[in-house]
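Q: Could you fold this chain for me?
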Amino acid sequence: MAIECLEEVIRIFGNEIYVYHEIVHNKYVVNRFTNLGVTFVDAVCEVPENSILVFSAHGVSPQIREEARERNIRTIDATCPLVTKVHTEAIKYARDGYNIILIGHEGHDEVIGTMGEAPESITLIETPEEVESLAFPESARLAYLTQTTLSVDEAGRVIESLKQKYPQIESPPKEDICYATTNRQQAVSELVPQADLVLVLGSQNSSNSKRLMEIGKAAGKPSFLIDGVQELNPEWLENCETILITAGASAPEVVVQELVQYLEEEHQAEVETATIRQESVRFPLPRELRAL
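A: Sure. Below is the predicted structure, expressed as structure tokens.
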């Protein structure tokens, strides 16, 4: 949705568009938009007044929105609705007097945005070991939320530790981890026993792509995260009969097919598509665009 949103913004307003952070964490996608004339920025002060600024799929804090308003910048919000859901939950829990424990990776764009909704109420942790260092009293009102792109298994271990230490802790009405992330992790877990090598199409700063690579490594299989076929090391293919190919949630299909085509043409590979779960979810464009 975020990629489609930026494409539509360019179609309507031209290519003098600014995006706060990378629209998605994928090098191929970012380079394509950069070549079209889009400017990616890490601070609102880099955006000229009266310009158009798109917020990335990872969401932003209220402070960033206020900075944009102060500079008379027209904003279009391409935040993933699943991330918006976590922001809404953080606001609600903070308003109701809860201490919120956010499970996520420090410094990730999504985590920064979520914590910005209620910084005085949110404590960030990443591992079960960090649960032991929490010092909330037994009577504290606690709730947990998660970054949407975490490993399901790793998040589950942290949640279990939280529930053991704080049985009263509340969970979000529906889990926060993105369905696309969950489905890909399940697929790799089920298929990796059949593979000699795991190749994940995605960028190094993509959290959900890294999780897929880690699942392969945890299963004892050589596993690599690459942006495209140009990063493929031929030595990885030696003595391989079966290669498992998957992709991060924001990796475009074209990079997957380029890799598949290379293996077919250069190594006479036979390709089998395995469907573990069908996805039918589709998010509408932001209302700012639907109104145009």
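A (continued): The chain has three domains: 2-80, 82-165, 179-267.
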